[in-house]
Amino acid sequence: MEQPSKAIAGVIGLGIIGSRVTACLRKSGYQVWLWNRTLRPEPNFLSSPAEVAESARHIQIFVANGEALLAVLRAMAPVLTPEHVILNHATVSPTETIEAAAIVTDRHAAYLDAPFTGSRDAAQAGQLIYYIGGDPAVLERVRPLLQVSSKSILPVGDIGHAAIVKIATNVISAAAVSALTEALALLDSHGVPLQHLSRALESNAARSPVIDMKFPSMVSGEFDPRFSLKNMFKDVQLAIAAADAKNLELPTASAFAGIAMAGIERGWGDADFSVISRFYGYPGRDSSPPPLPDQNSPEADSTQGHPPRLRNFWNLFQRNK
């Protein structure tokens, strides 16, 4: 939606998505005030989250995790007013979401739980999908802002509900890519050209957009990050923790977490999460397993702090490799 040239917005976090949302806002006529933990040579780049809140009333946050989100909100809290609407787009736990909302509402400002789906290319094209948890009246105040970078805005209930929806969808994506990795390995082990699977999936119910997106990189061995392995690992951890809180078992998510952790140990964390296909030996793959840490080294218990099932799946994966 075309905006007046003097429309103002704030963006905090200039990573793969935040930088592209900023570009969409500028193209639509917004004056955008920015802050990022690492200094960037950007117009209107300010020295703190508080300065962004002093310059803009509607602020979109694209940070890496819940710890970063809470730190940003605490930094800007003293200058928040009832005119502010804070939109958190980071994938964080429901508990962190509610804590973040409390920081904002204690200052009589408004907060929306607003994670998104869509990768780098979708953000660049203004085609993200936002899941919104929070007051519908607050959403209407910022709908024109969100429309600039989205193709759909989906209200899903209260604050915290959108966080769970986003985490759940990422569990599905992780499982789909893990299954595709194994399917390709199965074909290769029987001497079947991998492209036959692509043709078979064209008319198969198992086909999905995430498979269409990841299949080419898994065959070519190019893993330019659209969604990094370390971020998918983080989100699956959030799912496991949320399930633990309700006494639920997520064995598929836990299995992916073990494989992802092994990939991160290999140094693949910044690559696209489809990089887990490197554990198999189809064309162009390094199929050698990651080394098992020395049990006496500080890295030996690198799963400390994770749920017990995650540690079990990690150990199982290491033994099988």
Describe, in short, the structure shown.
By secondary structure, the protein is α/β, with parallel strands linked by helices. The chain is 47% helix and 12% strand.
Keywords, please?
321 residues; alpha/beta; Rossmann fold; N-(1-d-carboxylethyl)-l-norvaline Dehydrogenase, domain 2; 2 domains; five-stranded parallel beta sheet; three-stranded mixed beta sheet; 12 helices; 8 strands; 47% helix; globular; disordered C terminus
Description:
With 321 residues, this protein is of the alpha/beta class. It has two domains: 8-159, 3-Layer(aba) Sandwich (Rossmann fold); 166-320, N-(1-d-carboxylethyl)-l-norvaline Dehydrogenase, domain 2 (Orthogonal Bundle), CATH 1.10.1040.10. Helices cover 47% and strands 12% of the residues. The protein has twelve helices and eight strands. The chain has helices at 18-27, 49-55, 66-76, 94-105, 120-124, 136-147, 161-189, 195-201, 209-220, 229-245, 251-265, 308-320, and strands spanning 8-12, 31-35, 58-61, 85-88, 110-113, 116-117, 128-133, 150-157. The strands form two sheets. It has a five-stranded parallel β-sheet, with helices on both faces. Helix 6 (136-147) links the parallel strand 7 and strand 8 (150-157). Helix 3 packs parallel to helix 4 (94-105). Mean pLDDT is 89; it is low at 1-5, 284-314 and 316-321.
CATH superfamily of the largest domain: N-(1-d-carboxylethyl)-l-norvaline Dehydrogenase, domain 2
* SSE ordering: EHEHEHEHEEHEHEHHHHHH
Integer-rounded radius of gyration: 21 Å
How many β strands by DSSP? 8
The structure class reads alpha/beta
Total helix count?
12
- What CATH calls the topology of the largest domain is N-(1-d-carboxylethyl)-l-norvaline Dehydrogenase, domain 2
Per DSSP, what share of the residues sits in E-state strands of 2 or more residues? 5-15%
